[in-house]
Design goal:
The chain is an alpha+beta fold. The protein contains 26 helices and eleven strands. The strands form three sheets. Strands 1, 2, 3, 4 and 5 form a five-stranded antiparallel β-sheet that branches. Strands 8-9-7-10 form a four-stranded antiparallel β-sheet, with helices on both faces. The longest helix is centred in the N-terminal third of the chain and has 35 residues. The protein is elongated, with a radius of gyration of 32 Å. This is MMPL family transporter. It holds the Pfam family MMPL. It is found in: Cell membrane. It comes from Streptomyces ardesiacus.
């Protein structure tokens, strides 16, 4: 007796003990949420997230243990944007000072500072408490500013700072994500209703995916105490969790319904789904996890955090598909197809072979070489713009000007450039050299005061740590963060600082700040990308070889996924490095792609695309193992998996496309890049490139192995020709009609039924070539 696969054993236990399995899953999800909430999040600090020189600057500043203060800037300008009346400005500024000093949240209020152009006044305010929660305490200050504006006609009062900026941006982004969630869930349900034609069947994948997201968020919070977490992890978990959670449930549920419709009992249908789709889910999840693990080689805390969150949610989704999903299906029984949506239900229950997919596949099957050249050529053409990809970190100039606080930032930096783009010079030296460090920094500031690359509206202040070992000074520049002027000022400052510190023995210096962080981060990723890509390709190749026992399948999988990723990058560059789509997607082109996006997109796309590839090739191999010739196996595998793959792709494209509507440009690029890649993969790769390639390779698909064992049939009817309709005309089927039962010896069987065009099923024990459509018998295990 052959031991059943682990996926089958787990599924059978869950199906025969449904309440136990459902209860254990509920306890698991609840425990993850409770423990995660109790532990709290360990966020990435600036010291941990920096790389290269800006990273060293962050470590130097951190070692100085400077007290962190939440600073606010209250800007007073003319309401119409023109010249500010001096008397009205002074009155408003005095009112601001008086009101701010009366607030419990305020520690100190500075004297009003006039702008060099005479058209604005600035009131500096220092808040009490730390900087992390300043956005939650800043509202009284904002209310005070609004009251001043109401009391003084013709004056505009803006507030920009640690708390107010964070609050303004988080509120806008929070509304964006709420809108995305409100759209994505109904959209996913609508797509699944079309797929299944029944409300419960459509709801099961969504509910299961949401439970996976909840459990993964809790586990990710716990994991943050080992690997600190970035704030974007929750968004990535939601994105990946809904994508793979729905996909895996969809694969499993479609196969279970297919087998149950063929006459199997619920438990038998679940076992078949576990051995086929369940196995595919494990393989697919493994490939996604392998791909995401490549991010650890980026040697950067943010990527490590994103990798950890993604791996956790994918692993949880695989676990849910193997354990609680069989229990839900067994417990629901026939109720899974209730309540039916009349028209959609009839569509899903249509008998007979689809006419659409054979027609779409005809070019690839009849003329594989021509189809391969044309389709690959089209993808390469789409990939051409990627050759001109430029990378930059996002900055304030990428934010939508529809956000009130962003417009306030623009007005502040227009009148006070030193409050905008700032470089931070950090120096660490022995305490007895503190005077020498100050002298050197003052000399540096004298040089910047004479250079137009730097802002001159205020005099920079040198700050020293309590122990006198660390000194910092902020040097402003009048340029936007991603401009050439900001980059040039950084290069000049990084050249001047070492010279300034040359006469201070033991001094360690570095230049940081937002511009430096963006430049260093981009350079770091460009350096690490070959290592990440190489790791993902190598490990994916090894994984595919172990799964399919075929070097050819592994190589073709890698090449096809590289092709679709390159085409997606080409679309991304064509859309976001140019201006033609600005009005359509509501963004301002910076002429570049966000620097962290290509690496992250590559591993995500490689993992998700491999998901579909494994599922489709598994069905093709299943047909080949049953004795079908290559063309027939390709046709059967793709046709029979087309519905579920297309449905899953539509869900993913819909969810990802919603991210293209968000305000921040990095999320727009992420959504468009993912949606374009999945669409290209589902349409061009799966319909034209993959079938054409596998048809052209023939038996070479399974090199160096083969799919049929000795003694298998040597011939098989090609489905491009009419099949003979009785067993006597197809003697090769009769040789393999004896079916083995689990735990039962072979028994005489009824004559095999005629092969049914458009489908096949084979038993877990049948030999290669057995291709039948027998009705199930009690206790049998068929597939």
């Amino acid at each position: 007796m052959r031991k059943k696969p682990a996926t089958v054993r787990i599924a059978r236990w869950s199906a025969t003990h449904p309440w136990s399995a459902i209860g254990l899953w509920a306890v698991f999800v609840a425990a993850c949420l409770v423990l995660g909430g109790a532990a709290g999040t360990n966020a990435i600090s600036d010291e941990e997230s920096g790389v290269r020189e800006s990273g060293r600057a962050g470590k130097i500043v951190h070692s100085g243990d400077f007290p962190e203060k939440a600073e606010e800037n209250v800007l007073i300008t003319a309401e119409d944007g023109g010249k500010l009346d001096p008397a009205a400005g002074r009155e408003a500024a005095a009112d601001v000072v008086e009101r701010m000093k009366a607030l419990d949240e305020v520690e100190d209020v500075g004297d009003p500072v006039p702008a060099p152009d005479g058209e604005a006044l600035l009131v500096p305010v220092t808040m009490k408490g730390d900087t992390e929660n300043a956005d939650r305490r800043v509202q009284p200050l904002l209310d005070a500013g609004a009251s001043v504006q109401d009391a003084h006609e013709g004056v505009r009062v803006d507030e920009v700072g640690t708390g107010s900026t964070a609050k303004g941006l988080s509120e806008t982004l929070g509304e964006d994500f709420k809108k995305a969630e409100l759209i994505s869930l109904p959209l996913t349900l609508l797509i699944l209703l079309v797929v299944f034609g029944a409300i419960i069947a459509a709801g099961v994948p969504v509910v299961l995916a949401l439970s996976c997201v909840g459990a993964a968020v809790g586990l990710s919070t716990l994991a943050s105490h080992v690997l600190p977490e970035t704030s974007a992890v929750g968004n990535v978990i939601l994105l990946m969790g809904m994508a793979v959670g729905v996909d895996y449930s969809l694969f499993y549920l479609k196969r279970e319904r297919e087998e149950h419709r063929a006459g199997k009992s619920h438990v038998d249908a679940i076992e078949v789904a576990a051995e086929t789709s369940g196995h595919t889910v494990v393989v697919s999840g493994t490939t996604v996890i392998v791909a995401m693990a490549g991010l650890y080689l980026a040697h950067e805390a943010t990527f490590a955090s994103l990798a950890t969150g993604s791996i956790i949610v994918v692993a949880v989704a695989v676990l849910a598909s193997l354990t609680v999903l069989p229990a839900l299906l067994a417990k629901l029984g026939r109720w899974v197809d209730k309540p039916k949506v009349p028209f959609l239900w009839r569509l899903t229950m249509r008998s007979g072979e689809s006419r659409v997919w054979p027609a779409l596949l005809r070019p690839a099957l009849s003329k594989p070489f021509i189809t391969l050249v044309v389709s690959v050529g089209a993808l390469l053409l789409l990939a051409v713009p990627a050759l001109d990809m430029k990378l930059k970190q996002p900055g304030s100039d990428d934010l939508s000007r529809d956000i009130a606080v962003v417009r306030a930032m623009d007005r502040l930096t227009a009148h006070f450039p030193s409050k905008g783009t700032v470089h931070q010079v950090a120096v660490r030296a022995p305490a007895d050299r503190a005077d020498d460090v100050k002298t050197a920094l003052n000399g540096l500031l004298e040089r910047t005061a004479k250079d137009e690359l730097f802002a001159h509206d205020s005099t920079p202040t040198i700050e020293a740590s309590e122990d006198g070992r660390v000194h910092t000074v902020d040097v402003g520049t009048p340029f936007q963060p991603k401009s050439d002027g900001a980059r040039e000022s950084l290069d000049v400052l990084r050249e001047w600082v070492p010279h300034a510190m040359a006469d201070v023995p033991g001094a360690e210096s570095a230049v940081g700040g937002k511009v430096a962080q963006g430049v260093d981060f981009t350079a770091h990723l460009e350096e690490r990308m070959p290592w990440v890509v190489g790791f993902v390709l190598l490990l994916t190749f090894v994984t595919m070889v172990l799964i399919f026992r075929s070097i050819a399948v592994a190589l073709s999988a890698i090449l096809l996924n590289l092709l679709s990723a390159a085409a997606a990058f080409g679309v991304l560059v064509a859309v976001f490095q140019n201006t033609w789509a600005e009005g359509l997607l509501d963004f301002h082109s910076s002429g570049a792609v966000v620097s962290w996006l290509p690496l992250f997109l590559f591993v995500v796309l490689f993992g998700l695309s491999m998901d579909y590839h494994v599922f489709v090739v598994s069905r093709i191999r299943e047909a080949a193992l049953a004795g079908a010739p290559t063309r027939t196996a390709v046709r059967e595998g793709i046709t029979r998996s087309a519905g579920v793959v297309t449905s899953a792709a539509i869900v993913m494209v819909g969810v990802f496309a919603i991210f293209g509507t968000l305000s921040m440009v990095e999320f727009k690029q992420l959504g468009v890049g993912l949606a374009a890649a999945i669409l290209l993969d589902a349409v061009i790769i799966r319909i034209y490139v993959l079938p054409a390639l596998m048809t052209a390779l023939g038996k070479g698909n399974w090199w160096p192995g083969r799919v049929s064992r000795p003694g298998g049939p040597t011939s098989f009817p090609d489905q491009t020709e009419p099949a003979r309709r009785n067993a006597e005309e197809q003697p090769q089927y009769a040789r393999f009609a004896a079916e083995h039962q689990y735990g039962q010896p072979s028994a005489p069987q009824a004559p095999p039924q005629p092969y049914q065009r458009g489908g096949y099923r084979h038993d877990g024990h049948q030999r290669p070539g057995q291709y039948h459509d027998e009705a199930p018998r009690p206790g049998s295990y068929q597939q």
